[in-house]
Amino acid sequence: MLSIKNLHASIEDKEILKGFTLDINPGEVHAIMGPNGSGKSTLASVLAGKEDYEVSAGEVLFEGNDILELDPHERAGEGIFLAFQYPVEIPGVSMVNFLRTSLNSIREYRGEEPVSAGAFLKLMKEKKEIVELDQQLTKRSVNVGFSGGEKKRNEIFQMAMLEPKLAILDETDSGLDIDALRIVSEAVNKLRNENNSFLVITHYQRLLTYIVPDVVHVMVDGRIVKSGGKELALELEEKGYDWIKAEVV
Amino acid sequence: MAGTIIQSDSLKDTFVSRFRPIKLNGNGHRTPLQLKAEKALAEAKLPTKKWEEWKYTSLRNLFEGDFTLPSPTEQVDISSHLIDGLDAHIMVFHNGVYTSELSSLGIQPSVFVSALSELSTDEKAFYKAHSGSFLSVDKNIFSAVNAAYAKEGTLIHLPKSALVEKPIFVLHLFSGGSEKAYLASQNRNLIWVDPNAEVHIIEKYVNLGTGKTLHNQTTEIFVGNDARCTLTRFQEGAHLGSTVEQTQAHVGRNASFTISTYTFGGELVRNNLEVFLDGEHSEAHLFGAYMIDGFQHVDNHTQVHHTVPNCYSNELYKGIIHEKATAVFNGRINVYKDAQKTNAFQSNRNILLSPTANIFTKPQLEIYADDVKCSHGATTGQIDKDAMFYLKARGINDLEARMLLIQAFIGEVSENLSQDAVQAYANDRIASRFSSST
Questions:
Q1: Cα separation of B405 and B358, whole Å?
Q2: At what angle do helices A178-191 and A148-162 cross, to 10 degrees?
């Protein structure tokens, strides 16, 4: 599904990703953990196509195709979804208009017919229940007046609507209370199947007791320094990151 | 160069002559107002950019430009300029001249709605008695030349407690002229809403694209005690139509006045808008939106006067300026000495779509009362990059993402339009305004 080889990326001449390599197969859930400043969110932004970052070396293949030349909207069309760490408020753009434009843009990219207004509303109602999103929230402007937890749930709601092949969850758990965390995790587990993949970026092990990963990677200073099974997350929780840093050096 | 117009009398005389009817009635038929205006006109000077009021708006093209006369035979088709779904009384003006065969009125006889060229005896008497009540003829050369020579325009008068259920739609079409020479026209409007009456007027000004036009217009508005008046303007001059508009409204006790001005284009548009809150507990809502590109220039000068206590005014102007276009906003709130408990708010927000676009904005507050709530502010920025990335990451392409954000930005203005059909029309124009050029 996703194959990243020796990826180097920088922002304002500061190199953040320094030879990042990762392979994810269909149906797999990978977690990336690491201390602050290790480059986890940069990785998410680079994969989604944020223009502020410059890729100086390496390649990113998605289903065998190089995506680094693609615009962000084309990557979304290909099936990549980023759940933002900090979802953006867009006053004046209603959730309904936003989601419908989004869904139909992706369908158009894939050569599919747009969904009718009726079918869209039905789909929205169905998916809203998965994340237990308040009915009223979809009547508002995008993320405006949403609490922190509602914003994160809204990201997962959008993911449920768009059904991506690869979903990147960038610290979706940070700032969530235990109830919201459980709702978000259950939604991810419901959407998980053998054809799609997840890349879960997190600072804490807690999320991974709900979303059980196939592989856990530890990222330090712009690359993966250690990979293992789900038990690696527990070990990190107990011992912190220092022992790994020591091991690497 | 800025402000270097040679103030020769001949330049002024030539400009004034563009608006002087070929057959001027003798002194015997001139009204006192017209005679006074002619005197003011003799004293008036052509404004230059050295004048504070015209600092950012050069009138050189108008004063030094060539002018041409209308062709009397030209026919226009109004069908594509109506507003879909709007059930309204319709008045049509072509180059400032009322075209009765294209209009459809049929309002109860107690209400006066008429072109000045078709006034009945009663209407004529009313117009003569009230025109010129507010707008002083010596304000500037445009108001002087308008008062002296304008013969056509609209009279709308609602007697006490009258209600015109359907809105009145006034369509102004401009054509003729050429790429180089202007065709001049002027109108003089009077809107008089007696106590407890209510009216909704929608005006649309369209340059049909055949050549340059200049329309010089004044509008005087009276909103009596407990009355309501809503005036919505669409200025669609494209790159050829120029307008100098001067509107002055006086609002009585418990009355409400709402004016919305949408400028989707114009070679040069200058809107002078003054609202006086003259009766306690009256309110004024001033909404404006401008979306311009190319070398278009739009200048909104507004003043709200809180002359008495306990009044409310709210002003929101938003603009999107693209390419080498220029927008000017100069808004002033005047709170008079006795106007305690005034609530007055003003905001001007702009988005520049290109580095060559210009905005000059100057919000001003002058407060002489001590127990008031007032705020004003102006912002200028670009399209929000984070919002753009968020939309694009959801599969929406660059152009469409930009359109969504533009619509959202101006939508804060258009959401205040009370008529569904009018709001739908505005939103449609907002959505399509830059759909091919950004």
A1: 20
A2: 10
* A97 vs B contacts (CB less than 8 Å): 404
pLDDT class of B3 with cuts at 50, 70, 90? very low
pLDDT number for residue A156? 93
Please check whether residue A204 is in contact with residue A175, taking contact to mean a CB–CB distance below 8 angstroms: no
Which of B218, B210, B262 lies closest to B240, judged by CA? B210
In the three-class reduction of DSSP (H, G, I as helix; E, B as strand; rest coil), residue B143 is classed as helix
Question: Average pLDDT for residues A93-108, to the nearest whole number?
Answer: 95
The whole-angstrom separation of Cα A91 and Cα B406 is 11
Give chain A's largest Cα–Cα span: 58
Structure tokens at B328: 């000017």
ipTM of the complex: 0.96
Residue B327: name the closest of B303, B302, B361 by CA. Answer: B361
Please report which helix (H) or strand (E) contains residue A127, including its range: helix A117-130
B243 neighbors B235 (Cβ within 8 angstroms): yes
pTM: 0.89
* For A49, nearest residue in chain B (alpha carbons): B393
Distance CA A111, CA A98 (A): 20
Contact status of A106 with chain B (Cβ, < 8 Å): yes
3-state secondary structure A61-100: EECCEECCCCCHHHHHHHCEEEECCCCCCEEEEEHHHHHH
Decide if B400 touches A, using CB distance below 8 A: yes
Tokens of B358: 């210009």
- Residue whose C-alpha is closest to residue B36's, from B138, B126, B120, B121: B138
Substitution target in A78, A96, A102 with the highest count of B β-carbons within 10 Å is: A102
Looking at residue B49, its amino acid is: K
- Give the B window 333-362 contacts with A, CB below 8 Å: none
Using CA atoms, how far apart are residues A133 and A125, in angstroms rounded to an integer? Answer: 10
In angstroms, what CA-CA distances link B52 with A72, A127, B1, B57? 48, 59, 17, 10
Interface test mutation site (partner A, options B320, B384, B385, B391, max chain A beta carbons within 10 A): B391
Q: Is B54 helix (H, G, I), strand (E, B) or coil?
A: helix
Nearest CA in chain B to A74: B395
pLDDT tens digits for range B265-311: 999 999 999 999 999 999 999 999 999 999 999 999 999 999 999 99
List the one residue out of A227, A236, A191 whose CA is nearest residue A209.
A236
Interface membership of A110 toward B (CB under 8 Å):
no
